[in-house]
Amino acid sequence: MSDYRRSRACDEPLPIKGIAGGSTTGMAFISANNDAFESYGLRASQIAPVKLEAAVDYANGLNRLLADPATSMKTRRLGPSKIVGEYG
Question: What pTM did the predictor assign?
Answer without folding.
Answer: 0.64
